[in-house]
């Protein structure tokens, strides 16, 4: 019985691999060099949030158990954010407050991006991405084109393919 605590959960391993692929895509140098996301702590959060939103949207359109995978992927994201805060030296008493702000920011971005992505509204998405990713009122047109291309590409992906190979994001340099 006690040894079952030390066995690897295959589902958790799949989710960890999926999250790692999403996080790796958000660190693609072209996002920062070609598409202009600031290479700062905030910029990295914005890139990861955008890629998480895109991956979760892809899962939303798939049949069950994609909804459970989306929940587990979201949990992995927030566990990573929690661990990052602690790694940066944030005290145990402050972490819950910061996590609440991170969650509000993430879900706010998901809401802001969802409408323009649904409508394939490049201008609306560019404005939202400009405010969030660039921190300005200038639209982020190349980044919006990148996000729309990624979102469109996910519409043909199956859950099995998503879990096996992960989401395949376009090359950011193609949208600069």
From TrEMBL:
Signal peptide: none annotated. It comes from the Bacteria. Belongs to the UPF0174 family. Residues 34-169 form the Ubiquinol-cytochrome c chaperone domain. PANTHER family: UBIQUINOL-CYTOCHROME C REDUCTASE COMPLEX ASSEMBLY FACTOR 1 FAMILY MEMBER (PTHR12184), UBIQUINOL-CYTOCHROME-C REDUCTASE COMPLEX ASSEMBLY FACTOR 1 (PTHR12184:SF1). It holds the Pfam family Ubiq_cyt_C_chap. It comes from Microvirga splendida. This is Ubiquinol-cytochrome C chaperone.
